[in-house]
Amino acid sequence: MKKIITTDKAPAPIGPYNQAVLSGNTLYTSGQIAIDAETGELVLDSIKIETTKVMENMKAVLEAAEMTFENVVKSSIFISDMKNFKEINEVYAQYFNEETAPARETVEVANLPKYVNVEISMIAVK
């Protein structure tokens, strides 16, 4: 059985999907990009600011499922330019305890929705 997780503290989906789906004790999030939930505007001032907005959006989705970043077991990071890896990683690292950080992959892709620079999805377990 699955439960749809939604919050107005993260941007609404821009297609036929949900912010997250809880199946049993496992949460599968959709990818988050740097959209401000209140204004609907992209936050692209710098790669660090963009990544922070992505992580804050993800935090809101996790909280809607009564979870935190400590519950995350897997992250997928999609970036448009591997040259941004270091700065993205610096921001990402602020949200996790290095000793209990999740498994992760970071993949450079040709394009992302709305031509953003970074998109992150996660799997979390209660």
UniProtKB/TrEMBL annotation:
InterPro entries reported in the protein's UniProt record: RidA (IPR006056), RutC-like_sf (IPR035959), YjgF/YER057c/UK114 (IPR006175)
Domain of life (superkingdom): Bacteria
A GO molecular-function annotation: deaminase activity
A cellular component term, taken from the record's GO annotations: cytosol
Family label: Belongs to the RutC family.
PANTHER family membership: 2-IMINOBUTANOATE/2-IMINOPROPANOATE DEAMINASE RIDA, PROTEIN HMF1-RELATED
Protein name (Swiss-Prot/TrEMBL): 2-iminobutanoate/2-iminopropanoate deaminase
